[in-house]
């Protein structure tokens, strides 16, 4: 009798497999704040389009889950969700998540897009950024929570960072209140906010802080189980992004203007 019950229990364990492993559905999280052109909480951006189409080509269904970014990364790391849509190539992220790798680094051709980070300051501030170092910087550099690319780059340059802001709007309000000399934000969202009267006292400095690719990353245990299928998702993203029709398709998904920092005369206006 006990052996019969044990056999039933083992059969039951075999029937309980991860949902994604049943080639049924992937649950991918995105930020609860808009980061054009890549992701939006209530509609598809360019990264969401790429992921949705690539997952469909593999034969799986897809669900996007909207969460604060730090919670999103934690949920994927713990296995509560299958993946995160826009993950930076940092040592921290590579240690916790499965990313498309080539020679130990993220495979740039399989990214879902590029992000450009810029420096914001109050108009009466004397702090400068020359593309390599800050001058007249007296405080930690503030940025949004969970963006490890900023934390890693600031540490490399020898600067202190503070990632206590929970949204781009809160970040810029902290700057207006004098909580820091400068803040880091992502384009084109920074330019969109700088056009609002509330933030008229702020300006973007002309040289970008950094440019980096961003990737669809998966839970490591899921990737170990479904490597062949998930590799196919990354390969489909690469093929779609490098297809002749992608530039026009990308503009259709996000027709807004993408600001490119570094143009002469760019200091005062967004």
TrEMBL record:
Keyword Signal: yes
Protein name: Polar amino acid transport system substrate-binding protein
Keywords linked to the UniProt accession: Signal
Signal peptide extent: 1-23
The keyword Signal is annotated on this UniProt entry: yes
Origin superkingdom: Bacteria
Protein's organism: Ectopseudomonas guguanensis
